């Protein structure tokens, strides 16, 4: 059964893990999308640091106007140097014709190198689960710092609506989403971490000003659902005005499929 969301969702939002009517959902793309519409780019900082990324411009971009900037951080399985794998989960969502028309935006998928990470974590691998220890007191990992630098460069050089900079990510990218908002809360206007987690002790009132919508599968064996629950509780304790949580019973470490299938997954960002 699904409960209605309130500005601060104190209880978990229970959703059926079976997703009926996916073919009718505008967020689901039936045909194979043309990923080449995401242009391949290489960001090079003034210090010579590089970051590969893919960027999708809205239709009619050259005609003027300003657009939201949407950043998506992939999971650990999409790390690499091909500048392609990061579109595996989520790329099709932004290519759906209905979404491009209804939610025009500049969409960016950076790619984290194979042996690096978005976030400062120590992983203790147990027999039946992974234990994650987050530490935001450390400098940002290089891929995350370069992503922030890229975002600031795009805001300065592209037709970006500075009041609509959105961030989301899944798994390792969900963790990176929590950390990036912590380091630059003034940059982002909405964030949606999926099956992630973060350093609850470091989160503060400034961070809690950013609207959050958090997703997780209740039976996730890779990233325990408790990490998202703890972040929700921390935001609640910080008196966050806009935080909601959706937990999917019976869903494991692929809750991004459920999140992307939410009819208002993109609309929520545009409402903030």
Give a description of the structure:
The chain has seven helices and eleven strands. Helices cover 24% and strands 24% of the residues. With 272 residues, it is an alpha/beta fold. The radius of gyration is 17 Å and the shape is globular. The chain has one domain: Alpha/Beta hydrolase fold, catalytic domain (Rossmann fold, 3-Layer(aba) Sandwich), CATH 3.40.50. It has a nine-stranded mixed beta sheet. Strands 6-7 form a two-stranded antiparallel ribbon. The chain starts with 12 loop residues before the first strand and ends with a helix. InterPro entries: AB_hydrolase_fold (IPR029058), Esterase-like (IPR000801), Plant_Biomass_Hydrol_Est (IPR050955). Residues 1-25 form the signal peptide.
SSE inventory with pairings:
Layout: E1 13-14, E2 39-44, E3 50-56, E4 67-73, H1 91-95, H2 97-102, E5 106-110, E6 121-125, E7 130-134, H3 142-157, E8 160-170, H4 172-183, E9 190-194, E10 212-217, H5 226-237, E11 243-248, H6 255-260, H7 265-271
Parallel strand pairs: 1-11, 4-5, 4-8, 8-9, 9-10, 10-11
Antiparallel strand pairs: 2-3, 3-5, 6-7
């Amino acid at each position: 059964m699904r409960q209605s969301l309130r500005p601060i969702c104190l209880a978990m939002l229970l959703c059926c893990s079976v997703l009926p009517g996916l073919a009718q959902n505008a967020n689901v793309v039936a045909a194979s999308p043309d990923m080449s519409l995401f242009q391949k780019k290489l960001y090079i900082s003034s210090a010579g640091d590089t970051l590969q990324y893919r960027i999708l411009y809205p239709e009619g971009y050259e005609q003027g106007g300003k657009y939201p900037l949407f950043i998506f951080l992939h999971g650990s399985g999409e790390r690499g140097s091909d500048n392609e794998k990061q579109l595996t989960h989520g790329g099709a969502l932004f290519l759906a014709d209905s979404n491009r028309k209804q939610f025009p935006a500049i969409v960016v998928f950076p790619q984290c190198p194979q042996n690096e990470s978005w976030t400062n974590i120590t992983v203790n691998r147990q027999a039946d689960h992974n234990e994650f220890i987050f530490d935001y007191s450390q400098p940002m990992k290089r891929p995350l710092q370069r992503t922030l630098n890229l975002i600031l460069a795009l805001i300065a050089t592209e037709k970006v609506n500075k009041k609509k900079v959105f961030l989301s990510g899944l798994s390792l990218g969900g963790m990176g989403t929590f950390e990036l908002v912590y380091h630059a809360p003034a940059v982002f206007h909405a964030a949606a971490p999926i099956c992630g987690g973060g350093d609850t002790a470091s989160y503060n009132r400034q961070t809690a000003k950013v609207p959050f919508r958090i997703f997780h599968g209740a039976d996730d064996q890779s990233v325990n659902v408790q990490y998202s629950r703890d972040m929700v509780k921390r935001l609640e304790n910080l008196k966050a005005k806009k935080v909601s949580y959706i937990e999917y019973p019976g869903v494991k470490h692929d809750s991004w499929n459920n999140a992307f299938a939410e009819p208002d997954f993109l609309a929520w960002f545009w409402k903030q």
